[in-house]
Structure formats: structure tokens, C-alpha cells
What we know:
Blueprint: E1 2-6, E2 9-12, E3 17-24, E4 32-38, E5 45-50, E6 57-59, E7 67-72, E8 77-82, E9 91-98, E10 111-112, E11 116-121
Parallel strand pairs: 2-11
Antiparallel strand pairs: 1-3, 3-8, 4-5, 4-9, 5-6, 7-8, 9-10, 9-11
Amino acid sequence: VQLQASGGGLVQAGGSLRLSCAASGHTFSNYHIGWFRSNSGKDREFVAVISRVGAPIDYAKAVKDRFTISRYNRNNTVWLQMNSLQPEDTAVYYCAATNGYYSRVAKDFTSWGQGTQVTVSS
């Protein structure tokens, strides 16, 4: 499956952004989809994951209650709604797919989008 992330940008602290991940090439509903982020070349950090059918869903502790992941299999899209953004949320955000086990671990995901930059100013 091919993935394309979009929706990043520059926002002030306390603001919101919605990232989109559009998929093509394979049956989207076969894949769990995760969001990860990387700042200054560091390892990709888990943000959120949604299972093939929309549940279960998991979030990193740092974003729980601020971010919401959702999907609509009919149009092959996953979203990450990010509210109350803080400077520490600044990173390149990647969506990724796996048709294996439901996971929060980056190495378990086999397909990755190109990333979208999110910058939060203080």
C-alpha cells in the first residue's frame, strides 16, 4: 500500500491541525494505520494507531486527550486531529501501515508515507 501524508504546517501553541493520510494500491481495510513522529533525525516516536476496523485505538501518553485518530475505509483515509498543540509536538509526522499484528512499534510497520512537517511556535 502507498501512503501520502498531508496537512502539516506552522501553528501557534494552543492551536490545532488535522493531518490526513491517503492510501492507494491495496485493500485499505486490511491495514492497521499508525502515526509516528521524528524530530531532528531522532528515532520515530509512536503517536497513535487505529486498527483495521476502527477499534481498538491507542495513543502515546504525551498526546492522549489532545489528539484523535480516525479512519474512513471507503475513501482510504486516516486522519489525525491534533488539538492544544505545544512546541514539543514539533516534528515530521509519518503515517504507516501494517497488515500484520496490531502494534505501536515502528519496525512492525512495512509501508510509510513521506512525512509532513508540523511546527508549533511558542
